[in-house]
Amino acid sequence: MEKSSCIHFCFISCLVLFIVVGSWYRSTNSSLPNSTLQTPWSTSKNRIFSNSKASSVLETQAQTSIDHSAEAPHHPLDPLTVQEINKVRTILSSYEPFSFTLPTIHTVLLDEPDKVQVLKWSKGDALLPRKAQVLALLNGQSHVLTVDLDSSSITSHAINSSSGYPMLSVDDILAASKVPFSNAEFNKSIAARGVSSSDLICLPPSAGWFGPNEEGKRVVKVLCYSKESTPNFYMRPIEGLVMTVDLDTLEVLKFSDTGREIPIPKSTDTDYRYTAQTKEPQMEPLNPISIEQPKGPSFRVEDGHIVKWANWVFHLKADHRAGLVISRVMVRDSENGELRDVMYKGFASEFFVPYMDLDESWYFKSYMDAGEYGLGMSALPLVPLNDCPRHSYYMDGIFATPDGNPFVQPNMICLFERYAGDISWRHSEGLLTDFQIREARPKVTLVARMAASVGNYDYIFDWEFQTDGLINVKVGLSGMLMVKGSPYHQAPNQDAMSGPLISENLIGVVHDHFVTFHLDMDIDGANNSFVNVNLVKERSLPGESPRKSYLKAKRKIAKTEKDAQIKLKLYDPSEFHMINPSKRSRLGNPTGYKIVPGGTAASLLDRDDPPQLRSAFTNNQNRDRSIENKDIVLWYTLGFHHIPCQEDFPVMPTVTSGFELKPVNFFESNPILQAAPAFEKDLPVCRPSASP
Amino acid sequence: MEKSSCIHFCFISCLVLFIVVGSWYRSTNSSLPNSTLQTPWSTSKNRIFSNSKASSVLETQAQTSIDHSAEAPHHPLDPLTVQEINKVRTILSSYEPFSFTLPTIHTVLLDEPDKVQVLKWSKGDALLPRKAQVLALLNGQSHVLTVDLDSSSITSHAINSSSGYPMLSVDDILAASKVPFSNAEFNKSIAARGVSSSDLICLPPSAGWFGPNEEGKRVVKVLCYSKESTPNFYMRPIEGLVMTVDLDTLEVLKFSDTGREIPIPKSTDTDYRYTAQTKEPQMEPLNPISIEQPKGPSFRVEDGHIVKWANWVFHLKADHRAGLVISRVMVRDSENGELRDVMYKGFASEFFVPYMDLDESWYFKSYMDAGEYGLGMSALPLVPLNDCPRHSYYMDGIFATPDGNPFVQPNMICLFERYAGDISWRHSEGLLTDFQIREARPKVTLVARMAASVGNYDYIFDWEFQTDGLINVKVGLSGMLMVKGSPYHQAPNQDAMSGPLISENLIGVVHDHFVTFHLDMDIDGANNSFVNVNLVKERSLPGESPRKSYLKAKRKIAKTEKDAQIKLKLYDPSEFHMINPSKRSRLGNPTGYKIVPGGTAASLLDRDDPPQLRSAFTNNQNRDRSIENKDIVLWYTLGFHHIPCQEDFPVMPTVTSGFELKPVNFFESNPILQAAPAFEKDLPVCRPSASP
C-alpha cells in the first residue's frame, strides 16, 4: 500500500513548479481576481504601538523612521504614498454609496499599470496614471473599487460574489480576540481550569474555510493561551478550548472544550528575551565580529525604490500581502554593458502550513499566512545589527489602516552587502604543470531582506543578488512552534501522538510549510519559453564502447501549461530553463535562466482534503493555455517538512531553504572573469570600539 | 521506456546514504584494506615549486609557513611530523628487503591507534604508540608496511595481491607526461596538426581500470593540450589524441588519434589571471568589504590541531587523500557544560566524476579524485583575503615525497569565524498582542576550509560549526571544465553532442560529481543506532474529522546494514537520525543527530558499467551486518549533475551544495537561548586604510 502510494505520487501528483500565462493569480480566500498581489490586511497605527508591557533591550537600537508625509511617487511601480492613501480616503468618503458608513478598509494598494506600459516607461517620462485598488467590507459584503487618483473618481466598483473573503483586518483580529471573554461557557471552562481571565490571551490564528459546514461564512477559530509569567504565551496553550467565531456577527458558532484534563504547560524557561536570561551560556563568549565597509556600501537607492548595485538594477518595495516585491530586475551584459531584462516581478504569493493533527481543536490549523494575515503587515521593524548587519539600508512600508488612514511600518526591509568569506571562483595551478597560479575572488552579494512575524512563526525572506547573475531566494523559519498541550511529562509511545514531546506537557505537532513564489521571468524581454532539459540514461550499443551507459541532456520546450507542470524526480532529473527563443548567444545557444530547486518537500495531503483544496496552488492544477514564446510566469513552491524537536523550544534556531535563478547561456562567458581580488591595502583599519 | 526506467530507479537503485559497521572502507583502486584514509599520493618539494613561468599577483600575499622541523606530536591523532617522516625513511632504508633499492613511496601516514584507545586517552596521558603506515611500490608490486616509530622496527609487511593500485605519485605523473614526446606516432600526429611540441602540455588525468582489457595493469590515459598563449591550456585540448600508458613500463599500450579534423580551440579570452585582464568589468566597482574582528577571532588552536571555539572542541588535520579530517568532535551540553561526543571522524572519502561521452578519447573519463590523485596533495596554498577572509588561521599539511622525504604544503587549511549577516533565531511580537518584543541574534559560525585543485577542477570543502550544534558540510566546485574540442563554432543540433557548446570549438561535456563522506558519528558515545523517521500519509476514518488526510512520523530502527540503505524519495520523505539508544533526554527522547540531505543527485549509470563498478561506493551495496546500538559509520554521497553553460567558460563561478548534521533532541532545549545580541558599542571602529 505504501509502494502504490509512492507510485501514485511519483507519476501523478506533487507539483513543485508550474507555469501559467500572465501574472494572474487567485487564491480561494481572496476576492480580488484582478489583483496580482491582493494584500488586504491593514491596521491602525495607534492600536499597534500602544500598551507596550514588556520592552526589549534591542528596541532601543531601532533607527528612526524618515518622514514620509511629503513623498511623491517617482516610478510607475512605486507603492502608494502617504498623500495618495489620504487622497483615496477622501475620495471614498465623498463616494455616494458610502455616504452613510465608510466600509472597513482591508487594503489600499497601488493598482499597477499594465506591464506593457511599465516596460515602455523610462525615467524622465511623465508618471503613468496613478490608481488605487481598494478592498473593503461593509455589512458582510466585499467591495472591490478602483480609485483614479488623477481624476479623483471611482472608476470601477464591484461587490464580490465569488468564494473567499478579504484578508483579516486588525479590527477583525481584535474583535475576535475579545469574543471569548463574554461567553459564559468559556468563562466556566477557564474557571474550571483555575485560570484567571486576566492571564489569558486569545487569538484567531486560523481563518478560512474548513469544509462544507463553514462555507459562505467569514469564520475564524479563536484559541487562548496563558501569558502568566511569560511573554511566550505560545508555549502555554489552553489545550482543547476552541471557539468558532463568525467575524461579521461576532457570534460563537461553536464552542468546543476537549482538554480540561490537560495541564497548562509551565512558564519556566519559555522567556526568550535577552533581559530575561539568568543562566550563563555554556560556551565561551564570542569576540565582536562585523561586516565592515568604511567607505560605505556599494549600492545606492534612487527615488526611494530603485536599487543599483554592481551589475544589477531593480525596483524594491514593501507590500501588504507579499512582504517585499522585486520588480523590473535587470542585469548588465558582461560584454557590452547593456542592461538586460531578467524578471519583471518576483514575490512570495502564498504560504500553506498544514498541521498533522485531526483533533477537534487542531484539524483546521492549515494557515495561509500571506492571504489570511499578510506577510507585509506581519513584518515588524527589523532589529539593526541582529536582523541585518551594520551598514544596512532600511526601507519602510506604507499601508492603510482599517479606517483608511496611512500607516508607516518603519525599517520593514533591509538592504545590505554581504561578504561571508566565500569564494566567487578560484583556480590554482602548479602541481602538475610549471604554471604557478593562485587565483581566487571573494564573493560579495547584495541582500534584500524582510522578516514577517505571523503570530508565532517568523519567516525571513532573502533575495540575494550575485555579480555572476545568480539570484538566490531564501526563506528562513524561526520564532515559535505551534504546540499542543499534553498530559505527558515523558515521551510514552510517541506513535500515538501527533509529534514529539518538546518540553513537559508540550507536543511539537508535525507540520509542513509551503511557500509559492510568483516569478514573472522576462529573459531579454517578456516573451519566453519554458524548457525541460531532461537527463536521460542511455545504453551504449553493443561493441560501441567499454562504457555501458551514459547520460544525455534532452531539451523539450513546453507547448502548453500542462507540459510545464513539473514533478521533481531524483532519479529522472531535469534542469528547468526559462529561455528567450528569439535571442541567442553568439554560439547559438538560447539565452536563459534556470531555476535550481531547493526545499523540495511536496504536500502529501489528499487532493480532496479541505486544506489541500484551499491550497490547491501547491498542486499543479491550472489551465492548459499555450505558453511557448509568451509572457509567462514561473510558479515555484518551496517546501519544508517539520518534525519538531526539543531544540525548537522555546524559540527555534533558524532553518533556511530556498532556490536559485541562475543564468544559463545568458552571458557569453563567465561575467565575473574581470572581478578584482581583495588586497590588504584596500581593507579597513579597525580598532575595538572600547579601546581609546 | 523512460517511465519504466524511472520506476526502476525509484524502487531499486540509487542509494544516497548508507551505513556500515566500523570505519573500514575500501575502493577498488586502492590496496590498503586496513587503512581508513589511504592517501598514497606524494611529491617532491623541489619538483613542485620550481620552474614558475607565470606568476600571479595574488601569490605575493601568501603567508610564510612556519618551521615544522622540531615539532612533536601531542595527540594520538596528530599527523606524522617532519621528524617522524624522516625517521620512517631511515627505518625503511635499513630494512633488509629494500637494501638494494628503496621503493617509491606513495604514502607515509599515521597508522591511527584503535578508536577505543584514543577515546580513553586524555591530555596529560603518555602519547599512544606512534606507528606509520607506508604504501610503496617496487618492481610493479605494492608493499604495505607498518613502521613502529618507538621501536624503530617494521612490524608488518605485506605485498598487496588484491585488485587496485596505489594513488599516482608525482613521479608517475611526471613520467607519464613525458611519454608522448618520444613516441613516433604522437610526434607525427601533432606535426600534422601543426602544433609545436614546445607548446604542448601532456597530463595523465585518468587513472584506473576501464574494463577487462586493462585489468591487472597499472595504466593511465595521457591527453595533451596546447599552452600556447594561455596558462588555461585546459580550454585548448588536442582532441581525439589519447595514449594508454603502462605506468610501470612507460610503454604506450595503445595510441588513438580520432580528432585530426578538429581545430584546437582559440586561446583568446581563456586567461583568467587578474594581471591578464585588459577589459574593464561591465559593472560598478565594489567598495572594500571585510569581516572584521579587532579583538581577534574567538577560536584557538592548541597543540597544533585541537580547535576550541564557543561550545565546540575538535581535532583538525591535513590529510594526503581526504584533504582535511575532523576528529573527536565534541560539543558542550547547554545545560551543564559537559563536553559530549558527536562524531569520531568525518572526511571526504572518495570522489566519482563520470563524464557522459562514449568517444574513444572520452569514455574513460570517470575520475576518483581522492583515491587517484589525493585531495590533500592537490590542495595548493590558500590565497589569503580571497580564499579565506582576514583574520583566518592557516594550517600546513605535512606529507612524504616519493623518495620518502617530508614535504610541507603551506597554508593548506584555513580556519575562520564567519558572520554573513544571517539570523541565528528571532521573534517579534506586538501586532496581535500588547507585548512589544524585538529579539534577534546574529549567526556567527566557525569554518574549516581547504581547496583541492585536482587538475582542472577546484573543490572547496567547508566544515562549518554552528553554536546551535549544527554542522554544515559543503562542497564548492570551481576551476575549469573538462572540455571537448569540436568542429563547430555555432550550436547545431545539440542532440548529437555530449554537451552544449560553451565557446567556439568547445563542448562542455555533461558530467556528474559524487562525493562520499565518511561520518563516524558517536552520539554520546560510540554505540549508536540509525533510525528512519518516515513521514507517512494517513487517511482519516469516516466521520473522524473534516480533514481527510495527515502525515504521521513513524520511527524504524535499522537492525542491519540493508535496513539502512537509503533511497531518498521526495514523495515518501524521511528524516535520518543517528541516536544513542542508551541515552535519553529528560523527556525520554533518544539523544540524536539527523543528517539533512542536500545535493541529492544520484548516479544513473548502469550497475555493470565499468566506471560504476569502480565507484560502487556510490551505490548502496554492503554487507548486512547487525548495526543496532553498535559503533557504526554513516556514509553520505553528495551529488551534482552538471550540464555546462557558457558562463562556465573560461573558469566556473563556484557551485556549492552540501548536507547538515543537526541535533535532534540532543540538547534539552534551544542551546543558544542565552546567546547575546550584537550591540553597537561592542562593534569595531574602522576607517578606510587609504585615509590618513
Automatic annotation (TrEMBL), chains A, B:
The active site is at 369 (proton acceptor), 457 (schiff-base intermediate with substrate). Topaquinone (TPQ) is generated by copper-dependent autoxidation of a specific tyrosyl residue. InterPro entries: Cu_Am_Ox_Cu-bd, Cu_amine_oxidase, Cu_amine_oxidase_C, Cu_amine_oxidase_C_sf, Cu_amine_oxidase_N-reg, Cu_amine_oxidase_N2, Cu_amine_oxidase_N3. The keyword Calcium does not apply. Residues 166-265 form the Copper amine oxidase N3-terminal domain. The chain crosses the membrane at residues 7-25. Residues 290-621, 622-672 form the Copper amine oxidase catalytic domain. Signal peptide: none annotated. It is an enzyme of class 1 (oxidoreductase). Belongs to the copper/topaquinone oxidase family. This is Amine oxidase. The lineage of its organism: Eukaryota, Viridiplantae, Streptophyta, Embryophyta, Tracheophyta.
